[in-house]
Amino acid sequence: MEKFRQFAEVPPKGWNSWDGYGASVREDEVKRNADYMSQHLKQFGWQYITVDIQWYEPTADSSKYHNFAPLVMDEYSRLVPDAKRFPSAGNGNGFKPLADYIHKLGLKFGIHIMRGIPRQAVHNATPIKGTSKTARDIALNNVCPWNSDMYGVNTDMPEGQGYYDSLLALYASWGVDFIKCDDIANSVIYNGTLKKEVEALRKAIDKTGRNIVLSLSPGPAPVENGAFFQRNANMWRITDDFWDEWSLLLNMFDRAEKWSAMSRPGNWPDCDMLPLGHIGIRSVDGPGGNRQTRFTKSEQKTMMTLWTMMQSPLIMGGELPDLDEWTTSLLTNQELLKMDDQITEKYQTYRDAKLITWHAESLQSKYDAIFNISDTELQLTGAQFVALGLPLTGHDIWQNKDVELSKDQSIKIESHDVYLLRS
Amino acid sequence: MEKFRQFAEVPPKGWNSWDGYGASVREDEVKRNADYMSQHLKQFGWQYITVDIQWYEPTADSSKYHNFAPLVMDEYSRLVPDAKRFPSAGNGNGFKPLADYIHKLGLKFGIHIMRGIPRQAVHNATPIKGTSKTARDIALNNVCPWNSDMYGVNTDMPEGQGYYDSLLALYASWGVDFIKCDDIANSVIYNGTLKKEVEALRKAIDKTGRNIVLSLSPGPAPVENGAFFQRNANMWRITDDFWDEWSLLLNMFDRAEKWSAMSRPGNWPDCDMLPLGHIGIRSVDGPGGNRQTRFTKSEQKTMMTLWTMMQSPLIMGGELPDLDEWTTSLLTNQELLKMDDQITEKYQTYRDAKLITWHAESLQSKYDAIFNISDTELQLTGAQFVALGLPLTGHDIWQNKDVELSKDQSIKIESHDVYLLRS
Amino acid sequence: MEKFRQFAEVPPKGWNSWDGYGASVREDEVKRNADYMSQHLKQFGWQYITVDIQWYEPTADSSKYHNFAPLVMDEYSRLVPDAKRFPSAGNGNGFKPLADYIHKLGLKFGIHIMRGIPRQAVHNATPIKGTSKTARDIALNNVCPWNSDMYGVNTDMPEGQGYYDSLLALYASWGVDFIKCDDIANSVIYNGTLKKEVEALRKAIDKTGRNIVLSLSPGPAPVENGAFFQRNANMWRITDDFWDEWSLLLNMFDRAEKWSAMSRPGNWPDCDMLPLGHIGIRSVDGPGGNRQTRFTKSEQKTMMTLWTMMQSPLIMGGELPDLDEWTTSLLTNQELLKMDDQITEKYQTYRDAKLITWHAESLQSKYDAIFNISDTELQLTGAQFVALGLPLTGHDIWQNKDVELSKDQSIKIESHDVYLLRS
Amino acid sequence: MEKFRQFAEVPPKGWNSWDGYGASVREDEVKRNADYMSQHLKQFGWQYITVDIQWYEPTADSSKYHNFAPLVMDEYSRLVPDAKRFPSAGNGNGFKPLADYIHKLGLKFGIHIMRGIPRQAVHNATPIKGTSKTARDIALNNVCPWNSDMYGVNTDMPEGQGYYDSLLALYASWGVDFIKCDDIANSVIYNGTLKKEVEALRKAIDKTGRNIVLSLSPGPAPVENGAFFQRNANMWRITDDFWDEWSLLLNMFDRAEKWSAMSRPGNWPDCDMLPLGHIGIRSVDGPGGNRQTRFTKSEQKTMMTLWTMMQSPLIMGGELPDLDEWTTSLLTNQELLKMDDQITEKYQTYRDAKLITWHAESLQSKYDAIFNISDTELQLTGAQFVALGLPLTGHDIWQNKDVELSKDQSIKIESHDVYLLRS
Predict the structure, then answer these.
(1) Which of A205, A404, B101, D297 is most open to solvent, judged by the fewest CB atoms within 10 Å of its CB?
(2) Could you report the average pLDDT of every consecutive run of 10 residues in chain C (423 residues)?
(3) What are the chain D neighbours of A225 within 8 Å (beta carbons)?
(4) pLDDT at residue D1 tops 80
(5) Which family does it belong to (chains A, B, C, D) (predicted)?
(6) Which of C227, C257, C258 sits opposite B257 (nearest CB)?
């Protein structure tokens, strides 16, 4: 197994600021989520705390970007945290103090970056560390359609690779453990994956010598680039931004089905964050609003089952200190987490207009899930189980009890709910 | 007929600097082409002299753009000519002196503009005339993929329309008669025509009260927007940049066929400039190089026939003072120019792997063309003429003689050549 | 104007059996609709009575086809009417007696045909009239995806053209005045218009010497083939099957906008039949069921306005003998019918999320329509009229009264309703 | 590992009649190839002898199909071999005698089938074994665009599955070991993979209890269906028909790169047959003609290296009795065959306009290939090896010698040739 794949031998589990705060999270908010994770979730395998987009934008206040806003940048065209939002970053400290804080909690620290180099650096022709070129020299006139911060970088020039090398060296020096790079896995306007910049990132990370997990966004990543992603990244988004809407959850079954064959230790197709619990604190994306997740409990079970059965990374989007008992039970279900970590095969086995079945296997166990995707209750007899190739006996994970079904008996699954059997 | 359509009752005829000079033409070069046109071509209907892209870019030196180069701009975020390249534009004169010069020759003056507002204006937040907003306020984060000068403009804001109004007011005050707006008729990355900015231009021109022909680029303009173009512009490009290559000329038959039904007085689908005579002086696009056109004489006849039979605008790309006798004969063929001006119907009537026929009609005449698109000589009997619905008698325009064919006789057409009969 | 365009100098108006009967109409049903038209609608310009698909299929009983059903065919591989459904067609009479009946009423007779040659003829290798080839020899292995009756025909073979010639000769001998040919204008699986078979039909009709209007289906016909359709047909469908659903009506505005520039005497882009009054008698397509149209009165006004302002053919789908007073008023509105017949320009002038405006002109009049496409009532002031370029005074066609609006006054338009002003 | 995957634990190796004989191979020709394989290739792992398409078409004489030709069929709508072409198939023996012959040689027997049910069965409404339905009842009006033999089958009906069950039961009874099903993996006109018929085949094979390898054609199979193919088939074509043309071979690098992540024991993405040695005996496809392969020796080495490094099935297309020494050396290169059987990872590691590198690993060895895809000789220094991550020492498989390169030394690779190092 290549070295970088060892950085994520099981699907990464953590928290990310986007679903709650959009582009606007502050240091105190990050810390309180880290504190909570350390105390209540760490023992279940949760470890990454990630600051999402625009920690270098002083006026960021929601998930809406301020077009062409000035950004905080060092003398080498590299973005650094705004010290008003992240006080410990003052005096040129960068994220080092915050990373140290999180490491002390026994957790890992992640940041979001945008592909490219700041447009302001290009228009001002600022230097690239270790080179005689400026940002203007290495910039490409390709831009992100949904955010006005960056230009692309010409990685065919040694100085283009040099920019990425200097950037990752800086972030590694802060103690960053996880990079979520955006505007790179799928670009609608530039025809798919920006492969050259992905490769430049891979090289730049490898040069740091630090174990930094690489996560690529946004999705849907093109399936035909699957082998490419396996060679370069630890996780990549298989979907657009995911929110608490049934249509998006239903849609994920298609994507999970397509990607299931590409998933293996160190390479995890990513179903995106879990919009559970208290979300939308300052984010106005998705259905919008400061709210509890709009997913029903059935839908939350369906989401958790699909994500773990697909071995998606599990990145909680909701505010951790506000977790209620129900949501906590989802994040600490040891059967699910074990499935997420240990299965070695998984795939969809059947689909019609009403139900979808998936099968997974670990060395010890087999798992079968029946998802009711219809809008009414579904009743299935044991005979139908047999016809679908499903086992009649096993352990019902969501009910946490052993079951034994005869051909004449039947089970009921609520609309949008799931039945998950370990055997 | 709407007023703006009256600005171009027949297909415009003129000269444009692109094929010779790319982005780099200078005032003296423009003047010498205007002088020549006035003396030798004006009486045949040629009248527009157009300065193509980047007359505001001091370092422009070919058809390759210098990414992120500083541009010459007035205090209201409007691009103005570089006074080194256009000396008469010094002291804030803009193009007025050059336009005056050209008008005195009995000709009309055109300029190229890029859709949008300069990026440097946006990053510096410079003012928009007559409004309290800045360039940053009205800019959209959408950009041209092949040129780094401009951002798009939000024309849903009154100040966005205001920018275009102030721009056209300035250019009208100079005496501009023709605007070729680029990055607007077809954008590969932004999904077709940028309709809102086209409509803003239409309104801004109408407000000037000046008869300014509006030409939209680049192509291929989407055919499904044909009615939209008819409502807003005088001409629009139906093709990518056209150069002296047979494959491009052959391809134009497809495009002409599709667009022939959308062509009418005031609305002229545009087959692009005529790369005839001496071209590539400083342009390095297309097959490249300072050269005589690479088209054979047969191909030149084919091009001239298709352009005039399609009623395309005729915009000469080659250097006028260097015209030889042959090329002059193409530009001054009165039969062709009359067809271009007077026909009221035109369409393809037949196509197979070897030949294409077109038919056109004016009030006085009928025209039939037989294009040999094969790589060998084509022989056609009178009987084949009849089967194809072609007349046996008439005036052979290219040979300039009356002909009468019997069913047993045959004609020969060289490879890539054309037979054009008026009857 | 080419001769075939004279067959339809104004948009054709008539009745078609599909919306009421699907593939199953019988002779008595056709006659009673013809009788009614002759007595009540003929004086308003309605004249075509068309028998839609599968009059050669004995077991047809709705709009659902019986796959691979045997068809009634003559000895030359040509489909002829089933004599059980059309008793007058017995003894090899074909549709001649029914056509005679309809002609005596002062009306014209139309039939639907499918592109191609019956599959049963191909599998049995039956003869092609006037040739030594069989159906198997001239068949192409291309088929309609939604109907299993026919194979395509190789019109590059003289015998392929010969088949179409013999077919049209037979139908002309019956007195057919209108051919609606299906599976030809747009094929999803064979990449657009089947141009060669369209051209073969054009030639075959021209050879009959009879004035037979040619109508092509299904839609959406590709806009890029507009010039081709103008050269070969009198009308062509710009839409999939149209039914009484608002989403389909709303969608027609897009299509009408695209096609408006391609519409002219003899060439009429076709918005499909009017599902008004009593429909779905045996048809089970669309929203299905034996019913009065589901369109509200507002929507019916909108449809009639768009169809006539676009100069679409007007083909009534509902059962004529069951017409009520309201529906009759729609079909006999002389202002609308005059607009449909006499305008020479028409186009969309504005569109936003709530309203769409169209403008049309005849030699005598100008017409402006405001369509409220929103789901709530729309209020517009005279000032807004001016901003939209709409006239303040004129004749309100739907209210049938003269109006004069000041800038302060306002009008109201119900949801999905229309305001139509002649000035 | 699922049972069916065990049918092909290593990539299948064999011979197929298509490249030599098109649709027209005869029994004696099949036998002589089997004889040769048994004597000269079997010991290297070659074992499948497959009769390609239309063994049921009496008049088949090349790779061109006779549209609508009558086929040999049993009383249950199942195609059976034509006894004139396969004499041992007389008296209703089917392929049993030929399969027996091949089995006695220690080899395995394969046949090609087309998805669906014969059109002649549908038009004659012949029975389906074990059901009360006829071919007409279960047929779907979807057809192959390039062959007129079959209709699709409605596998949602039990009798549709029943047809496939009866078909596979018959073929299993003959002793068939390998089914290549066509018109199923990728259909241009029906939008991708015909999944329901693939699933029906999977079930029908599983019901036979016989180990029958399932191979799906044609390609390019859609990459997004990769997980689906893994669940249902042993091999599937990732390409259109492959022939001895460099452009096709070059193109295979793209496809191999995309599919490399989907390849594993029992599931082999298939680069198609090897057009080596004497081909085109009666096939007229591809570059056509009775010939020795047009590939240069360099290209043949490149093909063999890519196929084995990708773990493609190896299906020889050329006539085995005519093998020369060179071609034999390609098919019996034990290093390559071992790589094909034993590697567990493989992927492209670099690509630019001139060269492509691949890396593969087995438990014992690492493999690195450098493909020169340019049209001129390529020279690479040891320093460049290091920059590309390639080892300097190892065993040069094609030269069959150990090598040790210093940074200053360089190697040369001919145009279209390959350098393959085991380390």
Answers:
(1) A404
(2) 93 98 98 98 98 98 96 98 98 97 98 98 97 97 96 97 98 98 94 94 98 97 95 96 96 96 96 98 89 98 98 98 98 97 94 96 96 97 94 97 95 98 96
(3) 258
(4) no
(5) Belongs to the glycosyl hydrolase 27 family.
(6) C227
Instruction: Work out the burial of residue B289: count CB atoms within 10 Å of its CB; fewer than 13 is exposed, 13-18 middle, 19 or more buried.
Output: exposed
Assess whether pLDDT exceeds 90 at residue A156: yes
Residues C262 and C364 in one domain: no
Alpha helices in A55-152 (DSSP H): 96-104, 119-124, 135-138
Cβ within 8 Å, pair C227-B348: yes
Residue-wise pLDDT tens digits, A310-365:
999 999 999 999 999 999 999 999 999 999 999 999 999 999 999 999 999 999 99
Q: Is the pLDDT of residue A2 over 90?
A: no
B190 touching A, CB under 8 A?
A: yes
Same-domain pairing of D19 and D82: yes
**Residue whose structure tokens are 């592909």:** A115
A143 to B143: CB separation less than 8 angstroms, yes or no: yes
> Would you call D257 and A227 a contact, using CB atoms and an 8 Å cutoff?
yes
Structure tokens at C371: 């369509």
**Hey, what are D344's tokens?**
């567990």
What is the ipTM for the molecules in this complex? 0.91
Q: Which ranges of D158-208 would DSSP assign to H, the alpha helix?
A: 158-174, 195-208
Range of the domain at D37: 2-343
Of residues C374, C330, C366, the one with CA closest to residue C349: C366
Given B327, B343, B359, which residue is the final one in a domain? B343
Structure tokens at A173: 């020096």
Confidence of residue A287 (pLDDT cuts 50, 70, 90): confident
Considering its fold, how many domains does chain D have in total? 2
Please state whether A68 falls in left (phi above 0), alpha (psi between -120 and 50) or beta: left
- Last residue of one domain, picked from the residues B343, B363, B396: B343
Residue A300 Cα distances to A326, C355, D320, angstroms: 10, 41, 61
Interface touch D141/C190, C-beta < 8 Å: no
**HEC letters along A191-257:** CECCHHHHHHHHHHHHHHCCCCEEEECCCCCCHHHHHHHHHHCCEEECCCCCCCCHHHHHHHHHHHH
CA angle C270, C272, C275 (to 5 degrees): 150
Q: Can chain D be said to touch chain C, i.e. do they have 3 or more Cβ pairs within 8 angstroms?
A: yes
Give the chain C residue nearest B349 (alpha carbons).
C231
Inter-chain residue contact A226 with D231, CB threshold 8 Å: no
- CA–chain centroid gap for D321, Å, is 20
A148 contacts chain B (CB < 8 A): yes
CATH number at D360 reads 2.60.40.1180
Candidate from D68, D139, D189 with C-beta closest to C123: D68
Test A141 with B136 for CB contact under 8 angstroms.
Answer: no
Chain A interface includes D157 (CB < 8 A): no
Do A337 and A354 belong together in one domain? no
* Residue A282 and residue A354 in one domain: no
Check A68 against B143: CB less than 8 A apart: no
Residues in chain A closer than 8 A to D226 (CB atoms): 223, 226, 258, 261-262
- D196: CATH: 3.20.20.70
**Would you call C148 exposed, middle or buried from its count of C-beta atoms within 10 A (0-12, 13-18, 19+)?**
buried
Which residues of B fall within a CB distance of 8 Å from A71?
none
- Gap between the Cα atoms of A161 and C35, Å rounded: 82
pLDDT grade for D4, boundaries at 50, 70 and 90: very high
- E strands, D325-365, in order: 345-351, 355-361
Which pLDDT belongs to residue B215?
Answer: 98
- Specify whether C259 is located in the same domain as C366: no
Q: A115 to chain B nearest CA, in Å?
A: 16
